[in-house]
Amino acid sequence: MIDDTLSIKKEGLNSKYRLFTNALLFLCFLTLILQYNLVGIKGVIRAFLMIVIAISTCTFTNAMYWKFKKNDYHYIRKHIIASTPIITGIIVALCIPLGDLENNRIYLITLLAAFLSEMVAKLLIRYKDKNIFNPAATGILLTFFLFSDDFISPTIDGLLNQSPLDAISSNVDVYDTFSNYTSLLLGSYHGGIGTTMFLPLLIVGIYLMLKKVIDFRIPLVAFVFFFIFLFIIMLIFKYDFNFIIIHLIGSNYLFVVVYMLSDPITSPNDKLDKYIYAILFALIAVILGFKVTFIYSSFIALLIMNLSLPLIKKVIKKLSNKPEIPKII
Questions:
Q1: Which helix (H) or strand (E) holds 124?
Q2: Handedness of CA 281, 118, 51, 152 (dihedral sign)
Q3: What is the pTM of this model?
Q4: Which tens digit of pLDDT belongs to each residue from 282-306?
Q5: Which helix (H) or strand (E) holds 162?
Q6: Between 20 and 30 A from 170 (CA), which of 64, 279, 296, 317?
């Protein structure tokens, strides 16, 4: 009976992984369409190769690791499915910009980011047989700090080859550049090849929440409190409401909270833990996004929360434990 229950749970988990993978593959398809509209066929080929390289690297790295550790191909196959290297590979690729179209260094960067995500963050840095940090965020940040000059996008139809947040920190009139918000909603600005499409990302994310593949609590709370914290900053510094719009839909924040923050391995399971986790993430993301305006500030906030999760659980558990009242006989 126990084995049957475990089998049912495992099958349900695998079906969720498959649905999540299919959703990410659909986002890859939309990414290719976006790159075609922005750059042309060269952008499509470049984005497609980046996706293939990232998926192949994560899968191969995972297989070789378990080959040397277990030397059991049946076990390797099962573990690859369970540890979802395909999902990690897709997320890594979607978070990296096209790079300079005149050279091919971005392919090497994609390969390195995928390798670090799978080997370092998922397979080596572990506690109680679980990875501590979000793999994709870890690999991308490590690669970014090593090759930050290559994380650029080509200039498109006169638009800045930087994100709206970068433009704000550069004292550029970003509100005038993105004044109609169409470019923000559809992703026509600097960023990861698949993380700037706010509207498609939102629609696919809602679909995954309705299918209960993603728990709606973490993304919803993180997004609502991100808005609240931005609104407070707007009132304090007397910014225009465009300040909130730019930070909400002119960044990769939506992609992070929907497709990365709610990762079942590195996020909490209890409802109260999820709410606190999401609120603290939103607070840190706002602070970093306001003071350290670059495209991966939300990734840093995510890793901080991954590292803080055990402490959050411990504090909440301690506060929720009510002292026993002695019985009067």
A1: none
A2: positive
A3: 0.85
A4: 999 998 877 665 778 899 999 999 9
A5: none
A6: 279
